[in-house]
Design brief:
By secondary structure, the chain is of the alpha/beta class. The chain has helices at residues 6-12, 23-33, 82-89, 98-105, 121-124, 128-132, 151-161, 184-200, 228-232, and strands spanning 41-48, 60-64, 75-78, 94-96, 113-116, 162-166, 172-179, 211-218, 224-225. The mean pLDDT is 92.
Length: 237
């Protein structure tokens, strides 16, 4: 079994594993404990009190990150005719129909988010096995199926930092919040956006405690446990 390096061991000493930290303090600590030589990603992990095997208890949605994620998002739009031009003008890195589908079938996947117009959904469905397991399949619930007149707004949101979250098979939600180089207040704003979106996405049939635990971590750093009361009380209003 591989062991953590000296830098990680020193970072661990900064974190009290028995303590629940309020959001602002947790963000500052996660930044301080980041031990890699690159600009690590700050991540939020939520253990949910729902049954991932129950279709009525699936948690899924999108959060609009006010400060983005600190990286360029490559957007692909499945569109044809005049709508293809609209997508390109709106900022899509790639736009097209049948030719893009064939390119993806051949193994090309150099994009981060895929959007489709309703008339393209049927054609794109053949890419389900390729895009689905990578979380790239356009989906109405995720807001990535958009009508032509709504396409510019969706593309703009995605490029600025529109993050999709969903429950995994172990009842955990993992979401990126930005980079360690971000100012603490910007990471707090992004955290607030995600928390609000997750709370809003609570299925009506869920009983008991909706969010069981929450923690922040960085790509290579130790986990920092969040105090649920102030965390779930975060509000942008």
């Amino acid at each position: 079994m591989s062991k953590h390096g000296k830098s990680y061991q020193e970072a661990v000493k900064l974190v009290d594993r028995t303590k629940l930290y309020p959001p602002q303090e947790a963000i500052g600590l996660a930044k301080k404990a980041a031990c890699a030589r690159f600009d690590e990603t700050v991540e939020l992990h939520l253990r949910m009190g729902v049954d991932p095997r129950n279709a009525s208890q699936q948690v899924r949605g999108v959060a609009l990150m006010p400060h983005g994620l600190g990286k360029k998002v490559r957007v692909l739009a499945f569109a044809q005719g005049e709508v293809e031009r609209i997508a390109t003008t709106a900022g899509a890195d790639f736009a097209g129909g049948d030719e893009l589908i064939k390119k993806i079938e051949a193994g090309w996947l150099d994009f981060d988010v895929a959007i489709a117009t309703p008339d393209m959904v049927g054609k794109v469905s053949k890419l389900g096995k390729i895009l689905g397991k990578r979380g790239l399949m356009p989906n109405p619930k995720a807001g990535t199926v958009a009508a032509a007149d709504d396409l510019p707004r969706v593309i703009e949101e995605v490029r600025k930092g529109r993050v999709e979250f969903r429950l995994d098979r172990t009842a955990i939600i993992h979401v990126s919040l930005g980079k360690v180089s971000f100012e603490e207040d910007k990471l707090l704003d992004n955290l607030t956006a995600v928390v609000e979106a997750v709370v809003k996405a609570k299925p009506s049939g869920v009983k008991g405690q909706y969010v069981k635990t929450a923690s922040l971590t960085t790509t290579m750093g130790p986990s920092v446990k969040l105090d649920l009361v102030p965390t779930l009380s975060l509000s942008s209003s």
